[in-house]
């Protein structure tokens, strides 16, 4: 039982925050397309005011939400990891947000 718990915990830690979004829409060339809020592709927010608040941002190259110490300024800046995930790890369906259209084969 203990070994199974350790294996399950390791699997959870390895996949936590690294889920690649699934896209189901296909274009004429049969490529999948995802549309994400443009703010998810801003860089890591900078700490302009010297504040040390625990915040989260989406690292699009690693496809995961990361924490940082900083302020509430800038785009791609979330209060919680869950807020970051809900905004940036799920492709948009119908939204008025500005979008980034990425495609994959």
From TrEMBL:
Residues 1-17 form the signal peptide. One of its GO terms (molecular function) is serine-type endopeptidase inhibitor activity. Residues 40-88 form the BPTI/Kunitz inhibitor domain. Pfam families: Kunitz_BPTI. Keywords: Signal. CDD domains: Kunitz-type. This is Putative serine proteinase inhibitor.
């Amino acid at each position: 039982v203990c070994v199974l718990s350790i294996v399950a915990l390791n699997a959870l830690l390895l996949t936590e925050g690294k889920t690649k979004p699934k896209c189901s829409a296909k274009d004429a060339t049969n490529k999948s397309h995802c549309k994400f809020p443009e703010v998810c592709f801003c860089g890591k927010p900078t700490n302009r005011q010297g504040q040390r608040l625990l915040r989260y941002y989406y690292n699009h190259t690693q496809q995961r939400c990361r924490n940082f110490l900083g302020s509430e300024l800038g785009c791609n800046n979330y209060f919680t990891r869950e807020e970051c995930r809900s905004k940036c790890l799920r492709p948009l369906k119908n939204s008025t947000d500005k979008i980034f259209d990425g495609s994959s084969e």
